[in-house]
Amino acid sequence: MSLRIARCPGCAAVLPAVGGMLPRFWPWGKKRQKCPNCGRQVPLSDGRIMGDSFSYWAGQLQSQLGASCRELPVLTKARALAALQPGLAADHVRLVPGLESLKHYVAQLCRQALCDQAHGREATVQVVSLTNPEHEASVGILARSSVESGEKEREALVARIGQNRFIIYTPSPPTGRVSVALHAQRGLPADHGSTSIATPA
Ligand SMILES: [Zn+2]
């Protein structure tokens, strides 16, 4: 779908579509939409730029996530829970039916960092394949927002329990497991200070 989605530059919420032919007859100054989330009045052109930029970064995350999750083996629910975290109870995870729903859900989780990336701020969203000591596979996601928006970290872990069924665990605060795996992947010690790698196209 190539429909251009406009988003609020402040909070990245999708702005309501401008209906019919109305904008053509509006004076330029009135081409604004109210953000349904934060109430900000957004010039339509700014909303479209934000929409394009956010889509680009969300697309980067979603294609990486899709590639990693398609590789995941199907596990029993018990083994999948153990892959996410030893001793994890089933009511601490969310069942997500379908890869597309999973991608959407993860983009929502990482929204602040994606919003920062869309503004050109230094934020990262990274995806890494993980295995636990029993060699059961999961996928980790780590989003870190920019200094301007509080440098918050969000971690998510995904395991597969059916051909098109996933479970996701979003520990708060982060366990640090994804961060450690990302450092190991790059051959750096786990306590290395900086994780500010850019995510090139
Ligand atoms: Zn907003």
Per DSSP, what share of the residues sits in E-state strands of 2 or more residues? 15-25%
Please give the alpha-carbon distance between the first and last residues.
Answer: 20 Å
Largest sheet: 5 strands, antiparallel
Mean of residue pLDDT values: 87
Give a list of the ligands: zinc ion
- Note the run of SSEs as H and E: HEEHHEHHEEEEH
Provide the gyration radius in Å. 19 Å
Adjacency order of strands in the biggest sheet: 3-7-6-5-4
Number of beta-strand segments: 7
Uncertain residue segments: 191-201
Report the helical percentage. 25-40%
Based on secondary structure, the structural category is: alpha+beta
Task: Please work out how many helical segments DSSP would assign.
Answer: 6
Molecular shape: elongated
Please explain how this structure is put together.
The protein is an alpha+beta fold and 201 residues long. It has six helices and seven strands, in the order αββααβααββββα. The strands form two sheets. Strands 3-7-6-5-4 form a five-stranded antiparallel beta sheet, sandwiched between helices. Bound molecules: zinc ion.
Concise account of the structure shown:
By secondary structure, the chain is an alpha+beta fold.
Features:
201 residues, alpha+beta, two-stranded antiparallel ribbon, 6 helices, 7 strands, 33% helix, disordered C terminus, binds zinc ion
